Amino acid sequence: MELNLLTAISPIDGRYFKLTKSLRYIFSEFSFLKYRLQVEILWFKKIISMHKILKIQNIENEDILFIDDILKNFTIKDAMYIKKIEKKINHDVKALEYFLKNKFSQSKKLSLISELIHFSCTSEDINNVAYALMIKDARDQILLPLWSEIIDFLKKYSIQYKNNSLLSMTHGQPATPSTMGKEILNFYYRIKRQFFKLKEIEILAKFNGTTGNYNAHLIAYPNVNWHIISKEFITSLNLVWNPCTTQIEPHDYIAELFSCISLFNTILIDFNRDIWGYISLNYFKQISVDHEIGSSIMPHKINPIDFENSEGNLGLSNAIMNHMINKLPISRWQRDLSDSTVLRNIGVALSYSIIAYNSILNGLKKLKINTYQLLKNLNNNWSILAEAIQTVMRRYNINNSYEQLKKFTRGKEINKVDIHQFISNLNIPEIEKERLKKITPINYIGSAVQIIDEETK
Questions:
Q1: Which residues lie across from 165 on neighbouring strands?
Q2: Which residues does the annotation mark as catalytic?
Q3: Does pTM surpass 0.85?
Q4: Which of 77, 242, 248, 372 is the most exposed place for a label (fewest CB within 10 A)?
């Protein structure tokens, strides 16, 4: 069966192909090979730049351009050739080295120094730097922009709905009101914190040989400070240098990064469920699209499928990332390969997140506040003002304030007339009675609006 959008096993490469397309340029096998090739070439150029110290032949600018063109013009055909070599020798990084040597053979000068390709490197030197660059690009070019878009939407709705009073539900029961804007602001604040955390997480890489001690380097060139050379190389790639490792970079930063993304996703799951509930209560209407169908048998339905899709894919993403968080920082002694196959699924984990982020953005664009339903529910729940009344009574030291309101309201249908009658009979100053009578379920929202104004400046 030919592989295409309909025959792909994973919905990432099938049903959701368009949504995850951007990640193919980072996490596909072709892209992984290209990132590795980039690291090999940059390390070779670093070695050549030390020609006086290492007492090796220098190369001209035209040779540098020749090397750069190998990466610039890297094609699927090149990648297939590398895979052909790998199939024969059963080693992916060595196959890349042989590919590069074959390219260098086309240049007389480069062919003379082709043994400096992959100089003193273990495969993990190449791989860990490649993964670090891939993760950095995915974070900076894809994740952060999508997160920023979601954050902007939540900020916009926080402001737009800041005056739309909302009957709160604590333990699923009517409770002290808020506003829809303030409830969205709560999520805005939470995910914004994760945005800044993700942005600041250090992406580490190492380049120190077989067991992290420059053994081979120092045998070849005992008088060179390879520790400093390693630092210079890694930092030149805008990565953070890890000076103390075994054969592998221990992946702690990946666990930190995925922990941040996983928490961001968990907060969004919470948001999806709240919005789903508000749609169910008819607090939000969804803008209908004429050609879309909500149910195969019930014509009236407009299901909150975008928020449901987002929730499901966030859960899948978190499940994979949580395995990586627990697995990747663990390696037997100086190295085992159990991390290798796991690392190859970084793109899979992020793909489910990308699908979810696009779904939530699509859902947010369809929301329209239903003021009528919000006000109706508030007006049906005057008993929620018991909190305000008993608190003012406490201020004036009225005994059993709480207990009086409990007896008056609990399990009963209370309306405006009942509330005002109760207030009129209180032994408090008349000015306080008038102030209490001005409170309604709609305007009893505390500082909700002011908090929004303050936090969205």
A1: 179
A2: 171, 295
A3: yes
A4: 77
